[in-house]
Backbone:
């Protein structure tokens, strides 16, 4: 009650990734902020085209947000997506910035405005909570259960994100904690901490994945 719930999901076909998100609002006072995130996403989709500088796209998103009395989250970005890669290279900041990067014809990007209230810090920080992980690379491991776990992760998820609970039953439960800890300390697997707004303010999010085509884009989600 009174919360914002962000539902951010991905799907892939043979490794080709899409990413999309909505914010579900249970607080009528924050409904306009949610609508602002959707408005900024719509403006970005309407204007993005081949060879557009990411700096120009960021300025368009920022103006769409600030014109409605809200603040963009400056250190969260949209991102290029690739085969088995949720974050494939080029970032799409949600604010005006200096960059020579451009969106390219035939590439796919997740456009992802994040919006908060005017008196917020306008940036996010890592929290202590971690629920999502990703395979990085094979590493020498001492623990045989860690080796088996890493093989399972690489085979089933490649470089796509996964949740710890998806590994249930891969190795005996009494060995799981120690084995998974070795994967993290060896940096064979990386963790994604949950983000929180630096001043504790609410954040709304909207996202679509688009394919850049001649004259604009094709929305894939």
Residues:
């Amino acid at each position: 009650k009174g919360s914002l719930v962000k539902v951010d999901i991905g799907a892939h076909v043979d490794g080709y990734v899409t990413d999309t998100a909505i914010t579900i609002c249970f607080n009528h006072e924050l409904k306009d902020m949610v609508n602002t995130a959707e408005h900024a996403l719509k403006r970005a989709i309407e204007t993005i085209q081949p060879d557009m500088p990411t700096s120009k796209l960021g300025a368009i998103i920022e103006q769409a947000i600030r014109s409605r009395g809200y603040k963009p989250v400056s250190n969260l970005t949209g991102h290029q997506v690739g085969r088995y890669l949720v974050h494939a290279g080029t970032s799409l900041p949600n604010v005006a910035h200096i960059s020579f990067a451009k969106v390219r014809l035939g590439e796919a990007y997740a456009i992802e405005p994040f919006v908060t209230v005017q008196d917020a810090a306008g940036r996010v920080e890592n929290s202590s909570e971690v629920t999502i992980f990703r395979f990085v690379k094979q590493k020498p491991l001492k623990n045989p259960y860690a080796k088996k776990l890493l093989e399972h992760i690489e085979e089933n998820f490649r470089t796509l994100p996964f949740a710890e609970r998806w590994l249930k039953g891969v190795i005996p439960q009494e060995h799981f904690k120690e084995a998974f800890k070795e994967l993290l300390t060896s940096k064979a697997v990386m963790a994604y901490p949950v983000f929180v707004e630096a001043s504790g303010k609410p954040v709304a999010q909207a996202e679509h994945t688009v394919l850049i085509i001649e004259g604009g884009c094709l929305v894939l989600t």
User: Anything to note?
Assistant: The two ends are 28 Å apart (CA to CA). The chain has two domains: 4-123+198-219, 127-193. The first strand starts at residue 4 and ends at 13.
